[in-house]
Amino acid sequence: MREFGTIPPCLRIGLAFAKDTLRDCLAARMADPQTPHHHNERTCPVWRKPMEEFFKCNVDAGFGSDKRSFGIGMVIRDSNGSFIVSRTNFHDGAALVKEAEALAIHEALSWIKELGYDKVIVETDSKISEDEVHSEEPYFTEFGLTISACRALIRNQSSLKFGNVRRQANRAAHTLVKTALQQACFGTTYVTPISIHSIIMDDCNYPPED
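Now predict its structure.
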């Protein structure tokens, strides 16, 4: 018999997703349309194919149930929306949310450099991380050093664009985070993972970016 007041795990996940969606909607409504943006499709709730000759890398980070470990997921697709390669990573140890997100972005940027890609759009659903990366504020903490390293990688890749999107437009990377947490290991694959196959196919139905 379920104890009164206990929320089933499936319902907790649904409530968390609803909370994230509400947060994104409020953020989009509050955004000033007159304010210039870097690459930012936050008002669009779906993944968009990148412009021709560009690749798009979506990246995300998330924590295990005990909050003592976190996973990172990233996936690269081409201008047709086709899967190119994905990577997952697992970090055993506590961290702040902003630290995990910043590390995920740094790993994605370093990975792109390692692969030799130049024309790439990198997307995260962390608005805080995007703001910090585009800021000129100096930092002297571990988080700040990671942000500074991200800035340096972006500066050194002239055709790289970086911005944030809604969680719904970052589903593939978010799902890969769950895979990283479940397997607790590092992995790279050039074959579409079963866990994101339907997401990749679904995302291809949406029009490309303007």
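The helical segments are 9-30, 97-115, 127-134, 142-155, 171-183, 194-203.
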